[in-house]
Write a structure and sequence with these properties.
Blueprint: H1 2-23, E1 37-42, E2 45-50, H2 65-76
């Protein structure tokens, strides 16, 4: 009878270990893609360009002056434009 309980406990522990191994929460690591952008000036306006990419449209055009200023302030605060003149 003692052998039965020893085998039963070993099987139970191995099943619990296999369950914990399969369903233990794991950390999901998402890497931020590195985009190499270049900021130049053309006709006194900044031009942001990326290698091997093309422009698909205008950045924005606004009718509301307050919203336009808020978007301007948002783009000006981006890390890649820090210290650059944004018009």
């Amino acid at each position: 009878m003692r052998v039965f309980w020893i085998l039963f406990s070993e099987i139970l522990l191995s099943l619990a270990g296999a369950f914990a191994y399969c369903y233990w929460p794991r950390r999901l690591v998402l890497l931020k893609p590195q985009v190499l952008e270049r900021i130049d000036y053309a006709h006194e306006h900044p031009v942001i360009s990326w290698r091997e990419r093309c422009l698909v449209g205008k950045l924005a055009e606004f009718d509301d002056a307050i919203f336009a200023y808020l978007m301007f302030d948002y783009f000006r605060a981006q890390e890649s434009l820090a210290g650059k003149q944004v018009c």
